[in-house]
Amino acid sequence: MGAVLTLYGAAGSGSAAVEAALVQCGADYRVVTAATWEAGSALDELRRVNPLQQIPTLVLADGSVLTESAAILIHLGLTHPASNLLPSDPAARAQAIRGLVFIAANCYAAIGVIDYPERWCADAGATESLRSGARARLHHCWDVFADTFGAPQPFFGGAAPGAQDIHAAVVSRWSGARAHLKRVRPALHALIERVDAHPVLAPVFARHWPG
């Protein structure tokens, strides 16, 4: 058994994607609850390893720190090649990495604006307009994602979900993205539902989003 990894996260957050990937890797890990919205959580501990206090943050066995969901998922895929998180074929792997970074740079980034518009707008009276525009942008980005990467059967990762599938299944849970995809990109919505139901991943998602 290898050294225990430490995942800083919270229920219903983006740390669900990393936890699901860790389960798929068979990694030995522990979760430390640390989130700005969780009273009594380990924020001081998180701040010491990530000054932005963002989750997920993963501390590796050697004590080095990984932040940014896409970077963590790519690292886990590269260091656990049998996990199916990243394809073994170089061309397919390049596109999977592209998809992971697309979600992080476009969809995840827009959610940050929707959730915390005051961080991006000095005019308190304009925050609702900013939030509305960011939500429209988010849904457009999911449309582009669907049109760019398609919705293969059964998963982006082939016969089993990969990191791109996991990341899409988690980030699409917020800001009305699932309802939007069900209406305008049903094939991608169906793929995401298959990820939700996968027997390896479903218990992780159930812990994060019970019921």
Topology, pairings included?
Layout (H helix, E strand, L loop, with lengths): L4 E5 L5 H11 L3 E5 L9 H7 L7 E3 L5 E3 L1 H11 L10 H26 L11 H23 L13 H9 L5 H8 L1 H12 L4 H7 L3
Parallel strand pairs: 1-2
Antiparallel strand pairs: 1-3, 3-4
Helix pairs in contact: 1-3, 1-6, 3-4, 4-5, 4-6, 5-7, 6-8, 7-8
Q: Can you characterise this structure?
A:
- With 211 residues, this protein is an alpha+beta fold.
- The protein has nine helices and four strands, in the order βαβαββααααααα.
- The protein has helices at 15-25, 43-49, 69-79, 90-115, 127-149, 163-171, 177-184, 186-197, 202-208; strands at 5-9, 29-33, 57-59, 65-67.
- The chain has a four-stranded mixed β-sheet, with helices on both faces.
- The protein is globular.
- It starts with a strand and ends with a helix.
- The mean pLDDT is 96.
Task: Please list the strands of the largest sheet in the order they lie side by side.
Answer: 2-1-3-4
Percent strand: 5-15%
Query: How many DSSP-defined strands?
Result: 4
Average pLDDT over all residues: 96
Distance between the termini: 33 Å
- Overall body shape: globular
Structural category is alpha+beta
The radius of gyration is 17 Å
Largest sheet: 4 strands, mixed
What is the helix fraction of residues, given as a range? 40-55%
Number of helices: 9
Order of helices and strands: EHEHEEHHHHHHH
User: Spans of 5+ residues with little confidence (pLDDT < 50)?
Assistant: none
